Amino acid sequence: MNIIERNNVQQLGDRGPVLLYAHGFGCNQDMWRFVTPAFAATHRQILFDYVGSGRSDLSAFEPRRYASLDGYAQDLLEVCDALGLTEGVIFVGHSVSCSIGMLASIARPGLFQRLVLVGPSPCFLNHPPGYLGGFEREDLEGLLALMDQNYMGWAQYLGPVVAGPAGTGEVATLLTSSFCSTDPKAAKVFARATFFADNRADLPRVTRPALILQSRSDTLAPVGVGEYLHRHLKGSHLRVLDVAGDCAHLSHPDLVVEAMQDFLART
Length: 267
Known about the structure:
Blueprint: H1 3-6, E1 10-12, E2 18-22, E3 44-47, H2 69-82, E4 89-94, H3 96-107, E5 112-118, E6 126-127, E7 131-132, H4 137-149, H5 151-163, H6 170-181, H7 184-195, E8 210-217, H8 223-232, E9 237-244, H9 248-251, H10 253-265
Parallel strand pairs: 2-3, 2-4, 4-5, 5-8, 8-9
Antiparallel strand pairs: 1-3, 6-7
């Protein structure tokens, strides 16, 4: 199988360190378009869509494989292999892709140099008193039930939630459009894998330096989640951005770029 076509791999530039971008649930590689211009002159940038998302080859979607985040981590590693990447990759992930990227780095630590995690959450469920991921199980089961009953209604509801408290504007419109254009069958599988994953036990196994970009107000990943990650990821850096919503790379790309450049400049 041609992985480049399967995952709709796109490359920007052919020189410099490699930045590999991974989109979140219900999204696609286009979500990075406000960030990539800042690194056009300095980095080789690689974008792709997970199978079942964006403009990937939907015929390659296997529900069993993609029922867990390991299947998406396999996509990521296969993209790297198809491009001949063996070391020095700087991973940039959003939301659930942060966990996917960490799983990939555990499987193949020598491949990755650093991790940039935008709005990460190792577990969306509350496990009191030690961990509050932001949601009760019945809340998420209700969200998945809505997907079954009224997929378009679900997409129109979730877009503004992910965008932030205001729930309006360009970011909400972009997200809603992306959710609506994602294949419902693939989206349902990815949703369950995303919202019911618990990767907290994997955090001590991550050996790559990580930058955690946490929004100050985020329904999907409260500040406490970013602080939890910072405590459990050895050598990590936590940067709380004074923004609302889970998509700072869309709403405030300048702040994300600045934080990335500071992190990448560290020796």
